[in-house]
Structures are given as C-alpha cells and as structure tokens.
UniProtKB/TrEMBL annotation:
This is Pimeloyl-ACP methyl ester carboxylesterase. It holds the Pfam family Abhydrolase_6. Residues 33-248 form the AB hydrolase-1 domain. Coiled coil: none annotated. The keyword Signal applies. Keywords: Signal. The keyword Signal applies. It comes from Tunturiibacter gelidiferens.
C-alpha cells in the first residue's frame, strides 16, 4: 500500500513538472503590438500592417503621438503601453524610432522593431546621426519650417522624397494630411537606449530617400539587430509593403515568446 502511494505521488509530481514549461510558454507569449508613426505622417499609414496582424491574432494598438515635443511623444507611447494586458512588441517608423528608443525601456516592452527608422544611442540625437550618411531629402529643398518652428514636407515634393513607391494620389493625400513635427524633436538627446538591453529588428528600405539606407544598415549593425531589407522600397515601406513589415513584426513576437 505504501509503495503504491509512493508511486502515485511520484507520477503526480512528474506530471506537474512536465506541464510547467508549457504554462510558462503560454504566459510569456507576446500578442500585443504597439505601432508608432514617424514625422510628417499619422497612424493611419499603419492600416495595411494592422489588418494583417489582427487577422493573425495579435492585439494591435496605434499611437497618435502629437509631435509637439519629444517628451510629449514618449509620454504618448508609454500611455498606450500602460493599457496593454501583457508584454508588447514596440514598432516604429522614421522619427518614431527615436521615440521608441527612449520609451522602450518600459518593462512591458519585450522587443523593438525599427521600420526605416532612426535608432540613436544614449547621448545621441537623430539629427546628428543623419549627418553620418546624409539623405537625399536633407540635400533637397523639400523640408520646410513654419514660423513657429514646426517642420513639414513640401506637398509638391512629398511623393518624390517620402513615398515614391505609392501612387501619386495616395502620396498627395498623405502630403495634405501630414502631421507637422517640431524641429526641436530632431535634436532630442536619448537618455537610455532601449535597444541596448532588448532584442531589436530593423527593416531597411533600400530606396529610402528620407533616411539614407546606409544609415539604417549602420544602426542595425551597431545594435546587432535582426535585419531585413526590402528592395525598391521607399521611406513609406510600411504602407507600400505591409506584408513584409508585418512578417518582421510577427517574427519578433515569436522570437521573444520562446
């Protein structure tokens, strides 16, 4: 009788132990995706990526940062992160990369995805980083500034420098709905770079004229990011190639869930 009881107890303990990894795997699964737009755009550009991620079972939130100040934008991202019910993959395009580099130190962030985005280190700002590999936009006359210090892209040149692989009609709409970004935001210095302590992914837009693709590659190499390059893609790669962008995001979510 004693031997039977001992055998039963041993089997029960073994079953409990064998189920523990499965429970832990379920608890660590990342299903929350937070998307952050960049300068001269808004969250609506993520619609194609959003549709794919939602169809694949992810919980997706899109931050509409005001671009009135870098601190305002970081706060806007953290506000949305606080609404999530578990760990998140934090994704950004363009200037949004600087924002998630600062905001991504939040403990709820499991990984970072940079989509044709800036990726400064602590003590750096994206304006200075851009001088390492000047962009076609930086050499052009397309970048304008209002009397009160907000930047925007000349609508007549928006298609050429920001969204060359979109239709003229779609680029025209984006040009007329762009969110003006405070010029000082490009000089905002990173205090702690989240990618230094968290896994990161970089999607390089090979025909980007807003951020030099060589800068995107340099950022990725420095951060040891998992890197994917989309041939022929403009700066608006998240709009023109939503499936490829969504694939990178989903790969990131799977990687941090293991």
């Amino acid at each position: 009788m004693v031997n039977k009881f001992a055998l039963f107890a041993t089997m029960l303990c073994a079953a409990a132990l064998s189920s523990t990894p499965k429970l832990q795997a379920q608890k660590s699964e990342v299903k929350n995706i937070v998307l952050v737009h960049g300068a001269w755009a808004d969250g609506s550009g993520w619609k194609g990526v959003y549709n794919i991620l939602v169809k694949d079972g992810f919980n997706v939130s899109i931050v509409q940062e005001p671009e009135t100040s870098f601190l305002d934008d970081v706060t806007a991202v953290k506000r949305i992160l606080a609404l999530q019910d578990g760990p998140s993959i934090l994704v950004a395009h363009s200037y949004g990369g600087s924002v998630i580099t600062e905001a991504g130190t939040d403990p709820s962030v499991a990984g970072l995805v940079y989509v044709a985005a800036h990726m400064p280190d602590a003590g750096e700002n994206e304006g200075d980083d851009g001088k390492r590999f000047p962009s076609d936009l930086g050499k052009s006359s397309a970048l304008k500034k209002t009397a009160d210090g907000f930047t925007y892209l000349d609508p007549a040149q928006f298609h050429e420098y920001f969204a060359a692989d979109l239709s003229a009609e779609q680029a025209a709409f984006m040009a007329r709905s762009q969110v003006l970004n405070a010029a000082e935001n490009f000089k905002a210095v990173i205090t702690t770079a989240a990618w230094r302590s968290k896994p990161s992914w970089m999607l390089v837009a090979a025909k980007d004229r807003t951020i030099n693709p060589d800068l995107e590659r340099w950022y990725a190499k420095r951060a040891h990011s998992h890197t994917v390059e989309v041939a022929g893609a403009s700066h608006c790669v998240y709009v023109s190639h939503p499936k490829k962008v969504a694939d990178v995001i989903e790969n990131a979510a799977r990687a941090v869930s293991k």
